[in-house]
Amino acid sequence: MRILFWGTPDFAVPSLRILDDEGFEIVGVVTRPDRPAGRGRRLTPSPTKQVALQLGLPVLTPERPRGDDFLAEIRALAPDLSVVVAYGHILRPEVLAVPPQGSVNVHASLLPELRGAAPVNWAIARGYEDTGVTVMRMVEAMDAGPVLHQVREPIFPDETATELSVRLSELGAEALLEALELMAADQLEETEQDDALATFAPKVDRATARIDWTRRASEVALHVRGMDAVPGAWSELEGVPVKLFRPSVVDDEVPPSQEPACSEDGGAVEGPAGTSAGGLVVCADEAGRLVVRVGDGALRFHEVQPPGRRRMSAADWIHGRGISAGQRFV
């Protein structure tokens, strides 16, 4: 089977590797163009392109996967099937129809749940207990094609979107291989999705990732884990944006008129009953404990990323005088 592979981020890499390992003929790899990255803003190839070049595969990097010239280019590769894994563009019907066996996609949810660009982020942020991967046949509508194969997977307690994405990328690669084996044996059953059951997972951006300190502790914790690591949940501290990671609930039953304990050697902020509010830093002590008030209690954050700095432990930030009790995130 001659396969044209489409993918861009790290999530796509296990699927590309498993196809190569299993001896499929990969006639080309379509990925996003090189983008500026890092402090030097040097042009950097996508993770998928880097692996494709290591494997000696032809690589196409159109700015937009459309137009007569691009169609002629992929037709010349004569693929039997397109495999799409987190490519990053919606493909038009004429592109999907180039391979005679059509186009299939690996999607990181149990469709029709969480259609869209960020299913892993929203599975965490919305408090799902499990999710999975779906291999589906692609149609013009977003993530709406018939389901070819699905695998369910639990979401671990305190798991971040970054960690879950790694697990689902490997699971997706295995599910893709199983689907292609069933396809080759003519044993693949296609199941239409029930559109009435569809939910959506829109792209997450900086505005989406901003922390709302008035929400319950459990909800804020889910939000922070769901935004990890990109774009990263953030809030302003004295006008400076700071990303926060690795939350744990201190006590989601603490009334707003009370403050959680910080440490025996001090560091907690105390004030008159009713003066505390969401975003207040109630603990930033020598032990490295960073505790922030939320709507119904408090959260401890174990890692932070100040602007222009690497991601670091809360302890390093506190010891570097980056924050102190009594300040407030907004």
Mean pLDDT: 92
Helix content: 10-25%
Strand fraction equals 15-25%
Q: What is the general shape?
A: elongated
Q: How many H/I helices?
A: 9
End-to-end Cα distance: 55 Å
In short:
The protein is built from nine helices and 15 strands.
Account of the protein in words:
With 330 residues, the chain is an alpha/beta fold. It folds into 2 domains: 2-197, Rossmann fold (3-Layer(aba) Sandwich); 206-319, Methionyl-tRNA Fmet Formyltransferase, Chain A, domain 2, CATH 3.10.25. 25% of the residues lie in helices and 24% in strands. It has 9 helices and 15 strands. The strands form 3 sheets. A 7-stranded mixed beta sheet has the order 5-2-1-6-7-8-9. Strands 10, 11, 12, 13, 14 and 15 form a 6-stranded antiparallel beta sheet that branches. Strands 3-4 form a two-stranded antiparallel sheet. Helix 4 links the parallel strand 6 and strand 7 (103-107). It is elongated, with a radius of gyration of 23 Å. The termini are far apart.
Write out key terms for the chains shown.
single chain, 330 residues, alpha/beta, Rossmann fold, 2 domains, 7-stranded mixed beta sheet, 6-stranded antiparallel beta sheet, 9 helices
